[in-house]
């Protein structure tokens, strides 16, 4: 007797299927596998087994293969959680290609151009010298505060020669509202002296000359070049840096690297106006601490949507300057500006 009480001879008979003398073989019911069929019917069933895979999905050794396949599936399911994690595991977002990012970035620029057709430098100035000084003063303060401060400064010191010869303490008192007034006085008086001594009292129109002036870096130089001389440049200030990262144009937090990376995305002719549009959007809608996502016109292009307030009514209350129905930053805005001029220093808005 073998295992489970089955005689060993009977097992052998099942494998060989030899009929007893004088007795016709008794047909046995099919066991459901090609291997059993072969044992019961002999050579003729081999052909059936060979074609049985197409009809029944199993080969002659289908039972063993099916068992191995089932075992393999169990092993695979254990090793690869995504097979049992549901359809969400297969819907993981693909990384955005470089080409797709460039197309999305350029579309953002086009749509911002429709939202802010009046985008402009938000510092009041009448000539390159005033723009240069105002831009230096705008560090660590708002353009509004600078615009409220510079009228008195330029009324007293209208030229580089005048400012270079000024009494430092008097300059400090005039620019005190902008903050860091001692350091800024040193910078604007220093650059005025350099303009007087090295450039004949004129602001140079080249980047390499501007960045040699005291207190003038690439950001300030590009503001002056783009808006006073019509030379294209990308102004990477705190707003531009924030939005370039939110829109996945760059992963860098270095202004020079951001400038270089963004410059490869847009044609040079767009650089100056791109800077104005991005900065406008950052000041009015896409704020640092609480972006007004629910009031943003380009959410369909923003990979960071949801970082801020998404409820439209609540988001609308976060809008600033003309978007929120408040005065702008310039006391003397351009004619096409749709908002109200900013009030002078000491006046109520």
Can you walk me through this structure?
This protein has 349 residues and is mainly alpha-helical. It has helices spanning 8-16, 34-41, 43-56, 62-79, 98-115, 128-137, 143-156, 160-164, 168-175, 181-198, 207-210, 218-228, 238-246, 255-263, 271-284, 312-316. Helix 9 (168-175) crosses helix 10. The longest helix has 18 residues, at 62-79.
Structure in a nutshell:
The chain has 349 residues and is mostly helical. It contains 16 helices and no strands. The protein starts with 7 loop residues before the first helix and ends in a 33-residue tail after the last helix.
Radius of gyration, taken over Cα atoms and rounded to an integer in Å? 39 Å
Q: Average the pLDDT over all residues and give the rounded result.
A: 82
Give the biggest sheet.
Answer: none
Uncertain parts: 1-92
| Percentage of residues in DSSP E strands | under 5%
End-to-end separation in angstroms reads 106 Å
Order of helices and strands: HHHHHHHHHHHHHHHH
Number of helices: 16
Q: Helices and strands: which structural class?
A: mainly alpha
Shape summary: globular
Can you count the beta strands?
0
**Fraction in helix:** 40-55%
């Amino acid at each position: 007797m073998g295992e489970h009480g089955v005689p060993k001879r009977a097992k052998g008979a099942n494998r060989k299927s030899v009929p007893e003398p004088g007795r016709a073989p008794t047909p046995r019911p099919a066991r459901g596998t090609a291997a059993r069929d072969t044992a019961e019917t002999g050579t003729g069933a081999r052909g059936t087994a060979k074609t049985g895979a197409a009809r029944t999905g199993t080969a002659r050794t289908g039972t063993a293969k099916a068992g191995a396949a089932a075992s393999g599936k169990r092993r695979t399911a254990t090793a690869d959680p995504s097979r049992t994690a549901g359809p969400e595991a297969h819907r993981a977002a693909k990384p955005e290609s470089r080409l797709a990012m460039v197309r999305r970035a350029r579309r953002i620029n086009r749509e911002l151009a429709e939202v802010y057709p009046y985008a402009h430098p938000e510092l009041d100035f009448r000539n390159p010298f005033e723009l240069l000084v105002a831009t230096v003063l705008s560090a660590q303060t708002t353009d509004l505060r600078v615009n409220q401060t510079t009228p008195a400064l330029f009324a007293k010191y209208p030229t580089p020669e005048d400012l270079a010869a000024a009494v430092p303490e008097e300059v400090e008192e005039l620019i005190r509202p902008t903050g860091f007034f001692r350091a800024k006085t040193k910078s604007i008086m220093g650059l005025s002296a350099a303009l007087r001594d090295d450039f004949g009292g004129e602001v140079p129109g080249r980047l390499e000359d501007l960045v040699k002036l005291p207190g003038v870096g690439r950001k300030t130089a590009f503001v002056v070049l783009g808006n006073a001389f019509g030379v294209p440049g990308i102004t990477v200030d705190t707003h531009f840096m924030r939005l370039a990262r939110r829109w996945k144009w760059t992963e860098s937090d270095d202004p020079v690297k951001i400038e270089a990376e963004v410059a490869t995305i847009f044609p040079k002719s767009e650089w100056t106006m791109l800077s104005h549009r991005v900065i406008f959007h950052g000041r009015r809608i896409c704020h640092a601490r609480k972006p007004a996502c629910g009031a943003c016109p380009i959410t369909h292009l923003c990979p960071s949507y949801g970082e801020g307030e998404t409820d439209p009514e609540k988001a609308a209350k976060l809008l600033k300057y003309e978007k929120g129905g408040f005065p702008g930053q310039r006391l003397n805005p351009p004619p096409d500006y749709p908002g109200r001029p900013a009030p002078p220093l000491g006046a109520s808005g």
